[in-house]
């Protein structure tokens, strides 16, 4: 598809000025609605398969959309060997996601990523390193990635992450509630997590690669939105299958249904394995087709990605200079 041409290659084209959708306060669990939801797997897979081939944005339009993609990244490090030093370097990258020379050439001075996403223990370091930047810190709490620690500890972890300065909390759902069709338990658990988040925005990670069917993905999406999730997110990045286009179609349509029924906009975060600039453009095109431009802003869309920024930077370098830089020059991103 042809994405509309942004007027100019400016910060505005990259997703600014900031807008803030009202929060999703949730609604009572509607089991009838949940059970009516179906997913036509073969139709969804057919549609998803046509998407990468139909995308076509070139030259300055492509550069503008790649800058938009940067403004939508939750720049992430979630490794067992994370150190304060690595998190500080990541935060420096978040403030200045591509070289100042490139930003000046693109007219994109001031461009930053949307947030930095880290484990609970790294929240104070990230908060300190991002001070004054306006970039929020997101914490993966609730026994990430499996979410199988005692429930009271998962709630406590959320509270501690918020107290340490996290403005966004990425929770993981209990996959077993989905696999056993226990929507009541999923709703109640997610609702309590939302309460523990307080003012912090909550992204509900479904771990779609472990939910078995696309119908389960649709129903889990809906239950999490009913329970008050501000975002629904595909994956932790640790499952064997993470973000995919079919899962994205299902989740976007659940978001559209919820919006049509309630008037509330819930955000979407594909995460895990999105590492190429062209994949990011495919996701943006799909969101634009399914939900419209309003969802292509940081308050309603994020990429959860640890290495996407590096490839986008390489493509922008090519746009400006006509040459590709070596991948190792962008190792951190
Ligand atoms: O939430 C973010 C993901 O964990 C990042 O996954 P990734 O390292 O495959 O980009």
Write a structural description.
The structure is a single chain. The chain is of the alpha/beta class and 333 residues long. It contains 13 helices and 8 strands. The chain has helices spanning 31-36, 41-54, 59-71, 84-95, 100-106, 123-129, 151-163, 175-179, 183-197, 214-226, 245-262, 277-290, 308-321, and strands at 73-76, 115-119, 137-140, 168-172, 201-205, 231-233, 267-269, 303-305. Strands 7-6-5-4-3-2-1-8 form an 8-stranded parallel β-sheet. Helix 7 links the parallel strand 3 and strand 4. Helix 3 (59-71) packs antiparallel against helix 13, helix 7 (151-163) packs parallel to helix 9 (183-197) and helix 10 (214-226) runs parallel beside helix 11 (245-262). Glyceraldehyde-3-phosphate (G3H) binds at residues 76, 78, 117, 236-237, 271-273, 304-307. GO terms for molecular function: deoxyribose-phosphate aldolase activity.
């Amino acid at each position: 598809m042809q994405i509309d041409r942004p007027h100019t290659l400016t910060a505005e084209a990259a997703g600014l000025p900031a807008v803030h959708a009202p929060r999703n306060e949730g609604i009572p669990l509607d089991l009838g609605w949940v059970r009516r939801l179906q997913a036509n797997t073969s139709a969804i897979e057919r549609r998803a398969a046509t998407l990468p081939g139909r995308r076509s944005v070139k030259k300055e339009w492509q550069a503008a959309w790649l800058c938009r993609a940067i403004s939508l990244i939750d720049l992430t490090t979630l490794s067992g060997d994370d150190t304060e030093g690595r998190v500080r370097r990541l935060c420096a990258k978040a403030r200045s996601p591509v070289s100042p020379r490139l930003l000046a050439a693109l007219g994109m001075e001031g461009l930053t990523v949307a947030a930095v996403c880290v484990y609970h223990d790294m929240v104070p370091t990230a908060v300190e390193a991002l001070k004054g930047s306006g970039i929020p810190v997101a914490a993966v709490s609730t026994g990430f990635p499996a979410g199988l620690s005692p429930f009271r500890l998962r709630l406590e972890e959320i509270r501690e992450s918020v107290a340490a300065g996290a403005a966004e909390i990425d929770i993981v759902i209990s996959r077993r509630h989905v696999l056993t069709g226990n929507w009541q338990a999923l709703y109640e658990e997610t609702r309590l997590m939302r309460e523990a988040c307080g003012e912090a925005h909550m992204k509900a990670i479904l771990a779609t690669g472990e939910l078995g069917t696309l119908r389960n993905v649709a129903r889990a999406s809906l239950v999490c939105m009913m329970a008050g999730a501000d975002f629904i997110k595909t994956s932790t990045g640790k499952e064997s299958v993470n973000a995919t286009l079919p899962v994205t179609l299902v989740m976007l349509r659940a978001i559209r249904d919820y919006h049509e029924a309630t008037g509330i906009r819930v955000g979407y975060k594909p995460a895990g394995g999105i590492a190429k600039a062209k994949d990011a453009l495919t996701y943006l095109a799909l969101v634009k087709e399914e939900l419209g431009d309003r969802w292509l802003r940081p308050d309603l869309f994020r990429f959860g990605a640890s290495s996407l920024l590096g490839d986008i930077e390489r493509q922008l370098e090519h746009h400006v200079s006509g040459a590709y830089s070596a991948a190792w020059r962008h190792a951190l991103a």
